[in-house]
Design brief:
The complex is a heterohexamer, with three copies of chain A and three copies of chain B.
Chain A: H1 2-8, H2 15-28, H3 37-62, H4 67-93, H5 98-109, H6 113-125, H7 134-141, H8 144-155, H9 159-172, H10 176-184, H11 187-214, H12 218-239, H13 245-268, H14 273-284, H15 290-298, H16 304-335
Helix pairs in contact in A: 1-16, 2-12, 3-11, 3-12, 4-5, 4-7, 4-8, 4-13, 5-8, 5-16, 6-14, 6-16, 7-11, 12-16, 13-14, 13-16, 14-16
Chain B: E1 6-16, H1 20-30, E2 35-45, E3 48-51, E4 61-68, H2 70-83, E5 89-98
Helix pairs in contact in B: 1-2
Classes of the chains: A mainly alpha, B alpha+beta.
The structure holds adenosine monophosphate (3 copies) and sodium ion (3 copies).
One sodium ion (NA) binds next to helix 5 and helix 14 of chain E.
């Protein structure tokens, strides 16, 4: 166990984590270093295109097992179960208003692409293998939690408040069409799944064509992106107004709880070690790209500063630095 | 004046970018003939500070500028004040002189649109 | 008021970005002492909807803001109304109080430039 | 009007981007409840022409928009006119009608902040 | 023939076409997926720099034949002939006002760099070779059509209208200096030709230095750019107001007619198969970067939505998916 | 000597210089070619991250010599001495106001990262080697000149003026905290030093991971960036209003004088030839990213057009085209 952990934690001295730390410290110290918004978004698009495509190619090589179906269903189930759990914990430990509570819950039911990408590097460095289709599972886990969040927002509205809210909603409720679009046609879902299917269709031949783009510079681009993430996370933390201690604690224990659910589920459905580790990481991670935009639309009365700070400035750094190696080590012990 | 100008209303709206389509729909329904959304770099308000270099569009604002006649302005303000119960935002209305006033007088659409 | 302010005109112009240099020349000729072009993110008008994420600059707009005295405003409006026969655009003029009014009073240039 | 609006001041400031934090501090101290900085694409003034595609942030401007009540506007203008001795910039103030006027009345902070 | 066609159409399953389709379908389905404007423009700059430089290096290796001169003249002639043809067809089949008609004609006389770049990949995949100087020919074909369009706008103005227009123009006509700059110093002309000459000057040694930048990731970057093009094309199509059936039809048959001119010209002047295919593609393609900006300046009264929708949302997708393989197959049959 | 020079000047036909010339000529001729601001800034971030990281890795391989300390101190001393010299020359030869004079002096005491990067390529092409820690020396030389500039601004204020200025300053002086941040936490200092330390920590293993990102495309990205620099420099030159002949002359002779200081210092402290060449280039180069932003903050009354035009549009092109090979040749003769 000590060995497994110590191998896992060599991650701490990887360029990835170090560049993240550089950004984080720079912003904490109030350096003006910044990555232009368009560049950050471009790097995120690259990472999604590349990880989706590489997953697809590896599925084209390995063939599609029935495991994909089982794992996807498990992933979607986690995407509903985790928000319910998160919502309950938030109700018990914080005094967030009901809309913000539901919105936060949705973030934790969803996933973070960059956390997943960083985890694949750690898992590979530990000598573990994982199934290419885990990328598709990730894409499928991205948005169901949006629905879970909205249902929680409606169910949890207290009686009197509910009437007022009901009146509003008749007038200005977000139309279901808009919501469905956020869930099924969310930009990152479309890009991840699209690139995944293009990888399946073009297979190794496609990899020969665009491998030098999606493969060779991948880790370097991830480092630059993590530098940006570090800057953004620390700035959020510095400027966060409404962050109470119970909320910050939630940002640490919630990923651990969700990870437990994930590692057990992954082991039970019989995934191999690397894939269990990745399902655990997906469970533990919280969205900071796809879900925030959707929540702004669907629950505009929720406090955006809260859910962005929690997922981006608390849970993401925790997962990147401590969570990923920990989850991978546990997965190896349980499923290895 | 050598060129004749007409008095109109200049409405300026500061909202979260993800809500732009909702207010655009409001303008369309109220018969506003046009609007322009302007890019922002940051700001502060009751809910704290924000700046543009964020990955997620959730925390970005736009300033929407729309010129319309007084009747449209009144109708639009009424609608906006209802929307503001749910969607946060800031609105202000200024008198402005325009050329070609016929450009700014549209027909409100029926609600059944 | 503790600080004394002066009444000026605030002119706001919405035009296609490729035409910016044409209107800049107009300002220069009319003796306008400065202007600022602001970035836009999208809009609608009589010729439909547009948004910024286009490759070609052809379909992009800017909002140009220029502060000037009343005399310059009148001259500029006159010129703009002629230009609008060929170049599409929207203009509005608002009263505004400024500090340091001497900044905003320029000399028109002779037509022979 | 069906919705009741209140008269406020709309202050518009054009400054170099590196000075934004200095004016933001001024707003904060004067009790201005919010402001929005808008992106620019270029401009001209007494110190010549500039355009956005520069590497260094030194030569970039922002337009800052802040809505406030008349008392705050007067206080802010006074402060700005002192700052303008050292930091170049352009300011203008316009009358504007707003909804929810209580949003725009803040408390100035003590100087000992 | 069937064989040639079927080989050519393997293009349909290439990552390039699939990423374009992904973007197109995503935008049609109203997904919010988008590429930041600055990133799209950056990718376009990269593609022009790389294709220009690689063309120059291959000329440095092969030597400059007199064919370059002949082909350039032929290309410029096509750049004048095609707008005249297009203008006539538009007058006969549509009711566009005279300014918009002339502007559309200019777009079809010019070329699309990305269509050319995609075609070079298809031609290479078919095992054909082409001359490096075709890049220079492309650059030279980019802007003459702007002049053609302006001449058509003046000539075609009906008598009464003409007087009014004449009066305007005295007051506000675009100065010739501005126009000359658009034609000779247009951004993409300068970058393509500049990179081409730098390729010639630095030759294979230059390629050693910057090959890992202009060569290895080229296809991958093209894929990302085509994803963006798919998004932009479909959004234009969805939002297009003035697009009538005769106009849409023009967007399909006009490239076919122009391609016929191109393939015959290329064969007559004795180019080898790959180069004939590329000259055909250049003839068939319509500009959506260089010419729209120039037309906004020179013919501000023309309806920009019409010419942008036609060239970007109808003709570009048609050429990318169907046109390129078709033209390549025909070129092979005629000149092979 | 003739040989050394002629080898050094093969630099003139490198893709780097040619792409810079392309941008410069295009902008002089008023082409609208331009690189989006976000892309330019992204490329600059890449270059700093890559050069910093590669320097760190090479230190990890070579070990840290005590030379680093000596060279750093020498570099910082140059960063104070050069502004004093520049300030004196400006007072004698120009009629700049005292704030602008101090601001210009600060620019020349600092360094230009891209000039350094271009010089490493020339030095390598000449077959010379240099120490990896020169990157750290560069980072350390970036901002001390800001302090020198501010001290000069205060010292040089003439009596009467000083009183008025003093009164202002009591009211609105830039707080020392802000200044310290500009000096120690300036974005490029943080990124260069941060990437340098990450390179030391991760060593050759880190290079295996992100080498394909920081190494392979490096020269190509430098070319694209230099194209942008050419455009920006020529536009500044064209639009510069206050540029007098004595000022323009200063932009040429000042780098030569500073280079002399640098080459002598480097030789005296016993650096090897490549490193002497680089220290010379650092002395000769003037900042156009880090210092302008700091001066806007600290000396807002200085004329930004003057210092930007001088460093970006006069000294940078001069150094890139003539300076670098000249300094390298001299270094080789003195220290070789
Ligand atoms: N009433 C208006 N208020 C604000 N912006 C407008 C208005 N009308 C038009 N615009 C802007 O001007 C652009 C061109 O207008 P148009 O020529 O009517 O299509 C539109 O896309 C808008 O960005
Ligand atoms: N008084 C104001 N003047 C200008 N912009 C404001 C003002 N108040 C708020 N805003 C803008 O609206 C955004 C949201 O405001 P709030 O909902 O109060 O946090 C702020 O971040 C500002 O960009
Ligand atoms: N009259 C004006 N109207 C609008 N913007 C102005 C005006 N004067 C100056 N500016 C803006 O303020 C910047 C600095 O002005 P200046 O200090 O006069 O060079 C200019 O580049 C413009 O962007
Ligand atoms: Na999760
Ligand atoms: Na064509
Ligand atoms: Na220096």
């Amino acid at each position: 166990m000590a060995d497994t952990l110590s191998i896992a934690f060599t991650n701490l001295a990887s360029p990835m984590v170090l560049f993240f730390a550089l950004g984080f410290l720079a912003a904490l110290a109030r350096s003006e270093l910044s990555v232009p918004e368009a560049v950050g978004k471009g790097l995120a698009l690259y990472l999604m295109l590349a990880i989706g495509f590489k997953g697809g190619v590896s599925v084209a090589e390995a063939g599609l097992s029935t495991q994909l179906l089982v794992t996807s269903l498990a992933g979607i189930a986690l995407g509903f179960a985790i928000p319910v759990l998160a919502h309950t914990l938030l109700r018990l430990t914080t005094d967030l208003d009901h809309a913000t509570r539901a919105a936060v819950a949705a973030h934790y039911g969803s996933i973070s692409v960059v956390t997943f990408v960083a985890a694949t590097e750690v898992v590979k460095a530990m000598g573990l293998v994982f199934d290419g289709y885990m990328v598709a599972v990730m894409a499928l886990m991205e948005t169901p939690a949006i629905i879970a969040g909205l249902l929680l927002a409606r169910v949890s509205t207290p009686a009197g408040e509910g009437d007022a809210a009901a009146r509003h909603e008749t007038a200005h409720e977000t139309p279901w069409g808009t919501l469905a679009r956020e869930v099924f046609l969310n930009g990152s879902v479309v890009l991840l799944l699209g690139a995944f299917f293009i990888g399946i269709i073009t297979g190794p031949k496609g990899m020969v064509a665009i491998g030098p783009f999606v493969d060779a510079p991948f880790k370097g681009i991830l480092c630059l992106f993590l530098l940006d993430m570090g800057l953004l996370a620390a700035r959020r933390l510095r400027e966060s107004a409404g962050l109470t201690l119970p909320l910050a604690a939630f940002g640490i224990y919630m990923p651990l709880i969700a990870a437990s659910l994930g590692v057990v589920t992954g082991t039970l459905i019989g995934l191999d070690v690397g894939s269990v580790a990745l399902l655990t990481v997906l469970s533990a991670s919280a969205s900071y790209i796809a879900v925030p935009a959707a929540m702004r639309m669907a629950l505009p009365e929720a406090n955006a500063a809260i859910y962005l700070t929690l997922s981006m400035a608390i849970t993401f750094p925790f997962n990147l630095v401590i969570g990923i190696p920990l989850y991978a080590a546990v997965a190896q012990m349980l499923a290895g | 004046m050598a060129v004749s100008t007409t008095l109109c209303k200049r409405l300026e709206l500061i909202i979260a970018r993800p809500h732009l389509q909702i207010f655009a729909k409001l303008f369309e329904t109220a018969g506003v003939t046009g609007w322009t959304a302007m890019k922002t770099a940051g700001g502060t308000g009751t809910s704290g500070i924000w700046r543009e270099d964020q990955l997620t569009g959730a925390d970005e604002h736009v300033v929407v500028l729309a010129i319309m006649d007084a009747a449209a302005a009144e109708a639009v303000l009424e609608e906006i004040s209802t929307l503001f119960a749910r969607y946060p935002g800031v609105v202000s209305v200024t008198d402005a002189q325009v050329l070609r006033p016929e450009r700014f007088s549209g027909q409100p659409k029926k609600a059944d649109q």
